[in-house]
Amino acid sequence: MPRPKKNAKSRRNRHVIFRLTDQEYAALCATAERAGLSPNELGRRLTRKRHQRLIIHTYRHCDPAFLKRIDQIGHNLNQLVKNAHIFGRVSPRIEQLCETIDQMVSQAIEETIDDP
Fold it and tell me: How far is 37 from 62, CA to CA, in rounded Å?
């Protein structure tokens, strides 16, 4: 089944092409990267704002090593739960472990959101 056609107002059919120096392009790319946008999308948003300031909220990303460790802990916890269902016994420390993991994740989220 083909993709439905967009109406004429929402279709982007105009191209704007202009040249930049290496410095200008690097600055545009750096700003777009900080905003989590492509350079084209940043330019599109800037043109739509006209004379208003464009405010882009950025957030600090969590450390990839931290995310990988949390992922590993999640896999281990999943295996524990699977074994608990199979064998019908659960370690009394599981609840404490879950609370510790929840605190770690909550703290990471707070640090990410609160960071300017």
Answer: 18
What pTM was estimated for this model as a whole? 0.41
**pLDDT tens per residue across span 45-70:** 888 776 677 676 666 667 778 888 88
> What is the C-alpha to C-alpha distance for residues 48 and 36, in angstroms, rounded to an integer?
18
What is the Cα–Cα distance from 112 to 88, expressed in whole angstroms?
39
Amino acid residing at 95: E
For residues 66 and 109, give the distance between their C-alpha atoms in angstroms, rounded to a whole number: 12
**Helix, strand, coil percent values for the chain (each to nearest 5):** 60, 0, 40
Hunting for tokens 């989590």 — which residue is that? 36
